[in-house]
Amino acid sequence: MTTASLHSVYAGPGGFEPRRLRREFPIFANNPGLVFLDSAASAQKPASVIDRVADYYRTDYANVHRGVYRLSARSTELYEEAREKVRRFLNAADPREIVFVRNTTEAINLVAQSWGQTFLKPGDEVLISVLEHHSNIVPWQLLRDRIDIRLVVAPLDATGGLDLAAFEARLSPHTRLVAITHIANATGAVVPVETIVRLAHQQGAKVLIDGSQAAPRLPLDVQALGCDFYALTGHKVYGPTGIGALYGRYDLLAAMPPWQGGGEMILNVTFEKTEYQLPPHRFEAGTPDISGAIGLGAAVDFIEELGRGNIFEHEEAVTGYGADRLSRIPGLRLLGAGQRRLGILSFDLEGVHPHDVAQILDQHRVAVRAGHHCAQPLMEWFGLSGTTRASLGVYNDERDIDRLAEAIEAAREMFRR
Amino acid sequence: MMDLRELYQDIILDHGRHPRNFRKIEEPTHFADGYNPLCGDRVTVYLSLDGDHIVDVAFQGRGCAISTAAASLMTEVLKGKTVEEARALFAQFHARVTGGEPAALPEPLAEEAERLEPLTGVKAYPARVKCATLSWHALEAALKSGGSGATVKTE
Q1: 8 Å CB contact of B39 and A356
Q2: Residue A219 and residue A242: Cα distance in Å, rounded?
Q3: A353 inside 8 A of chain B by CB
Q4: Residue A99: beta bridge partners?
Q5: Quick one: fold of A3-45+307-415?
Q6: Which residues of A participate in catalysis according to the annotation?
Q7: CA distances (Å), A95 to each of A35, A306, A356, in order?
């Protein structure tokens, strides 16, 4: 489908029409009545992505970067075409700046183990925030334990957003890297990454942004943003599981050593010495997730066809409606997200444990996530062991929020005694 | 799917909201922490043994209605039992919630085991079985630790 057609079919006069868009997602036809509000964990897949992966295996499959035969050349072309689509998605300057990885977690581990281990020395500081997912905490702790860097944590303000003044106060000439989320997965707090990049660069620090939750919701432009690394995962942008991408500025990638050795990442191997490929292939040892990359390319097409500005406006509107609607439920405390929240509504229901809330919601066919959302330090900050989290995709609308609110009321009713 | 009221029976809601023996035993002979990494729930089980007899048993922690009610009911059932009886009760309860083959218990104990019946609704919800067994795993770890304390994880 062309850009114009998908957009004109699904974006009605008032903006988006998620109910009609839902037809593109077979999961809804196969699960009638499902209210899916867990896209922050993983988004559902449009038929275009599912079919693209299946078609690739049916018609174009062979290993990449190896065979001289036509099928392999075709497969390589499709794989590299997917890289170009991701480049365009992030507006990177050069497709060689896009490294295919398994997910955001692997992207961050790659930077920690290759760039971090090479360029950081004992006493150097990596600055993160209380908002981070475990995947942007643990890789730095592993590095700290290995080479004795310092891990510094920027606190939040009273509203649950990043405290920019406190962040700035923790930046120093010792800060070599700021690794921070773009949108907090547990609260939906939008971090002002433009300011973060400016402040960090003033101190000579590099910036890595965890874009897991922002990639499906915000228009992105890594050149305008000026960040050094940007990590995203495919399955949250309506693509397959097992594929993600790391953007790295080319001069940085070119100076980084490989982090995994094997086939695909070499130019020449003897037992004495091995010459490595240039980026991005230097960082893609072994047969990659070819079908995943091609599926991710199809997912990126899907998003572009809908229009990223449209998706953003739609999610912003539904998020606002949801925050208003949920705030009116007695005993419900919406977790603070500072000044801005997008796509994620995380809450505590007085006297009812999140797992019990989620269980009752499931009975009402409303799928949400309950627990610590892999952000235990943030839960600790709020004084909770966990929350119930509803998160949006392009297929959700205000009626889903109403169904959610009704189910929460039912949970309250059951536990009121 | 079965009616949610079979999972959240009145007795579960009651014990979840007003847990019995929800306190610390100041000088326990045995104790252990139970931790469910999946949800972050924690429970500490305290025991006061006189020889082989459970004189007192109590717990503290935070958890969902199921895990709180399970711990509460456990403490009620265990008081006055022997360690061997406690282990037999756990083995039987574990089999009932995981769909295994429960062993027959001698008559007075079988009657006590019936008090745990309201919790067996979890077997229709695999993700919640750990909620019902967390405190029992902590009990087992406490007994095994021989008084030095222990931590047990459900995964």
Answers
A1: no
A2: 23
A3: yes
A4: A246
A5: Aspartate Aminotransferase, domain 1 (3.90.1150)
A6: 374
A7: 38, 23, 46
Query: How is chain B split into domains, by residue range?
Result: 4-153
Residues of chain B found within 8 Å of residue A363, distances taken between Cβ atoms: 1, 4
Integer CA distances (angstroms), A278 to A69, A261, A275, B60, in order: 24, 14, 10, 57
Q: Does residue A4 register a pLDDT over 60?
A: no
Q: What is the CATH code for B4-153?
A: 3.90.1010.10
Find chain B residues with C-beta within 8 A of A352's C-beta: 65
**CA-CA distance, A387 to A375, in Å (whole number)?**
11
What would the pLDDT profile of A233-244 be if each residue is shown by its tens digit? 999 999 999 999
Please identify which residue in the block is written with the tokens 């405290």. Answer: A163
Q: Provide the CA B88 distance to its chain's centre, in angstroms.
A: 13
Task: DSSP for A323-338, please give it.
Answer: HHHHHTSTTEEEPPBT
pLDDT tens digits, A295-340: 999 999 999 999 999 999 999 999 999 999 999 999 999 998 777 9
User: What are the start and end residues of each CATH 3.90.1150.10 domain in chain A?
Assistant: 3-45+307-415
Q: What is the CATH number of domain A53-304?
A: 3.40.640.10
A355 and B62 in contact by Cβ < 8 A? Answer: no
Strands, E assignment, A131-196:
150-154, 175-181
CB pair distance less than 8 Å for B64 and A353: yes
